[in-house]
Design goal:
Strand content: 5-15%
Distance between the termini: 67 Å
Strand order of the largest sheet: 1-2-3
Length: 509
């Protein structure tokens, strides 16, 4: 039986049997952290929709599937030993032990994160961080990765990469925590680790079929999905950062203020940089910038004031935008720009935290977790702590992810790289036998060419039509409503938005 009582105000009381100390948990604090847990949960399918919209439609469903699969696998891993490895109060400087294996003893005791909430509340809140991190990374398998082995990869990666980094960053026994590193909500454990892992995955998998040619010069197949994913992410980030205060107080409110401000400025900045090139107001550009701003403000959200958040947004929207060119300079195929947005964005956030963190802002929680501040408070060594934490997280994630990938490579059935045939057919069809859309489609220009007798060649989702030019930038062709014939002569009407080469005589390149 749980040894707790409730006082007249409804607060939970627990007396430590070892020392007789009374601990009181405010229902408002618990309610805020639980609400934040739900907010972060909705970010996970948000990542799936965001990634899905950026891809070709024949690979769209696989990313949404991956987001929910990751949540399920990590939920079990967190119960099994993940929470104990990250947040055991007997942890060493690097990783925890198995004291809380199977969540044994995780209930009413004060959490290692804050004495304001019991450990069971802290556990489920941190689970969401553990679950969203791998899906950010495995977006790198898009259009060329096998889905079965990725489930095994997620379990191993969470255990060997995420849990140790979370331990040294947030566990009071961790080396970065003791050193004085400041990371309010996951600059290194979530963003730098996942972004760098995505780079390692991209290098391991190699380039997609047709890399560097017109075949991959496509635009996002569903910009609405990109916007929808951004909405889920932005919405959930209030819990991601605000909930990391682990109490319903002014520090949580301040974290929400700077989160929204950095996202807004980041989105506008990225969009303006894109406008200079194409003279178009890009929704994808705005969404990409908003995500970059959210990433950058994450480690700083409980430490900086509102004016600094504007700079975070500008710097993230600018530098992450330019960082998308790194894949062309170094020749790796990171089709979703995960490294540029998350790893580079996380480093930007960590460094700026070292410059603009203020002890006064951290004190908005009533002094529960005092800090010395950053350069604004003349605590100049803080920048060194932030750089050390960033470099350690980036190096560890890249090396360990690469080792995991190659170990799986030599285990029968565990290679992550899909076959060329699966890549041509699409991961949705090849790996799942299901599709994001239940209709088929044709290209209007192709239809016109067929009537005129012009040659028509299909190449994945990008078509050539003799003298009929490709849509600008490889954008998917305009959609029409048409009538298709079944083999029995009956007809069915449907929205024509996805080409599928099923008839004899139509060959893939």
């Amino acid at each position: 039986m749980v040894n707790i009582t409730y006082d007249s105000s409804g607060s939970i009381q627990w007396v430590d049997p070892d020392d007789g100390k009374l601990w009181v948990y405010n229902p408002g604090d618990i309610a805020w952290v639980l609400a934040s847990t739900a907010l972060v949960w909705i970010m996970i399918p948000g990542v799936g929709f965001f990634y899905s919209g950026l891809l070709r439609r024949k690979n769209a469903l696989s990313m949404i599937w991956a987001s929910m699969m990751t949540l399920a696998v990590v939920s079990f891993q967190w119960f099994f030993w993940g929470f104990s490895l990250a947040f055991s109060d007997k942890a060493n400087a690097y990783i925890g032990d198995l004291r809380y294996f199977g969540l044994k003893g995780v209930l009413e005791k004060p959490s290692i994160g804050s004495s304001r909430v019991p450990s069971i509340v802290f556990c489920v809140f941190q689970l969401m961080f553990a679950a969203i991190t791998p899906i950010l990374a495995i977006g790198a398998i898009a259009e060329r990765g096998r889905l079965g082995p990725i489930m095994v990869f997620v379990f191993i990666w969470s255990t060997i990469v995420y849990d140790p980094i979370a331990c040294w960053t947030w566990n009071s026994n961790g080396w970065s925590y003791k050193l004085g590193g400041l990371d309010f909500a996951g600059g290194t454990p979530v963003h730098i680790s996942s972004g760098t892992a995505a780079l390692a995955i991209s290098i391991y998998l190699g380039k997609r079929r047709g890399y560097g040619t017109e075949r991959l010069a496509y635009k996002p197949h569903n910009t609405t999905y990109v916007v929808l994913g951004t909405v889920f992410l932005w919405f959930g980030w209030f819990g991601f950062n605000g909930g990391s205060a682990l109490a319903a107080n002014l520090r949580a409110v301040q974290a929400c203020i700077v989160t929204n401000l950095a996202a807004s400025v980041g989105g506008l900045t990225w969009m303006l940089w894109d406008y200079r090139l194409e003279r178009k107001w890009s929704a994808v550009g705005f969404c990409s910038g908003a995500i970059a701003g959210l990433v950058a403000i994450t480690p700083a959200s409980g430490f900086v004031g509102s004016p600094a958040a504007v700079l975070f947004g500008v710097m993230a929207g600018t530098l992450c935008n330019f960082a998308t060119q790194l894949k062309f300079i170094f020749g790796y195929d990171d089709c979703l720009d995960i490294f540029a947005s998350h790893a580079i964005g996380g480093v930007i956030g960590n460094i700026l935290t070292g410059l603009f963190a203020q002890a006064s802002v951290a004190g908005f929680d009533g002094g529960l977790a005092p800090i010395d501040g950053g350069w604004l408070d003349h605590h100049y060594v803080q920048l060194g702590y932030q750089i050390a934490d960033s470099v350690a997280g980036m190096s560890y994630s890249f090396v360990m992810t690469t080792i995991i990938l190659w170990l799986l490579h030599f285990i029968p059935g565990m290679r992550l790289r899909a076959s060329e045939e699966a890549e041509i057919l699409g991961i949705d069809d090849a790996e799942m036998g299901e599709f994001a859309y239940d209709y088929v489609g044709i290209d209007l220009a192709a239809a016109a060419a067929s009537h005129s007798g012009a040659a028509h060649e299909y190449r994945d989702d990008v078509h050539s039509h003799g003298d009929v030019p490709l849509p600008a930038g490889g954008r998917e062709p305009r959609h029409v409503h048409t009538k298709a014939l079944h083999h029995d002569g009956s007809s069915v009407e449907g929205s024509v938005v996805e080409k599928r080469e099923v008839d004899a005589g139509v060959a893939h390149a």
